[in-house]
Design a protein that fits this description.
212 residues; 26% helix; hydrolase
């Protein structure tokens, strides 16, 4: 069985998530934006061993701690899709702009594509490319527990911003309606910020995509 634990990090209260296989206690960390000591303390408390970093996209609040964490623990960096290369290249400037600690540069060990899978322990998670907020944004869908880690694509009652460089509003709406909704109304999603919700609830009531 796959389990997860969400840890809000940084002044942006970004939802970093630990996901792990209960058979092996091997874990991946999704979007380690910062507060690495807190993330590592949570992993230790849960008794899990970090084996990989999975990135939804490369904005500073999601990826700012990636380079340092990968170096500390010699972890592979998996994701996002290569459309976010320019965001990775710009992480040092992003850290200065938003008052984050200096972000170490990194190169993903593996870029992800739509339809890929990633594994942790004995568990497999599906990858969908969901551009719009950023061009290389991906989400991690775990159908075995009806959960999806969506980064900044969709929020409870809102959607991701598209006014950043290479953001695209229509592309974001298409990502939500064509790639998230088919995962099923009962699927609970873990957004990059704020509380969890379900795709069904958002499909019915979200003012930006409700009724789609």
């Amino acid at each position: 069985m796959l389990h997860y634990h969400t840890i809000p990090v940084t002044a942006f209260q970004q939802n970093c998530s630990l996901v792990w296989c209960d058979q092996t206690l091997e874990a991946a960390v999704i979007d380690p934006g910062g507060d690495l000591d807190h993330i590592l303390a949570q992993a230790q408390h849960l008794g899990v061993t970090l084996k990989a970093i999975w990135l939804t996209h490369a904005h500073i609040d999601h990826a700012g701690g990636t380079g340092e964490l990968a170096r500390r623990l010699d972890l592979p960096i998996v994701g996002p899709q290569e459309g976010d290369q320019f965001w990775i290249d710009g992480l040092p400037q992003q850290s200065t702009m938003f008052g984050f600690p200096p972000a170490l540069p990194f190169t993903p060990t593996r870029w992800l594509q739509d339809g890929d899978t990633v594994t942790i322990g004995q568990e497999t998670v599906h990858v969908r490319h969901c551009p719009g907020h950023t061009p290389g944004h991906v989400v991690f869908h775990a159908p075995q527990i009806q959960r999806c880690f969506v980064g900044d694509v969709l929020f409870a009652g809102s959607i991701g911003r598209t006014d950043f460089p290479q953001g695209n509003h229509m592309q974001l709406i298409d990502s939500i309606t064509q790639r998230l909704w088919p995962m099923g109304d009962e699927t609970v999603f873990i957004p990059g910020h704020g509380p969890e919700s379900t795709f069904g609830r958002e499909r019915r009531s979200n003012p930006y995509v409700g009724g789609t």
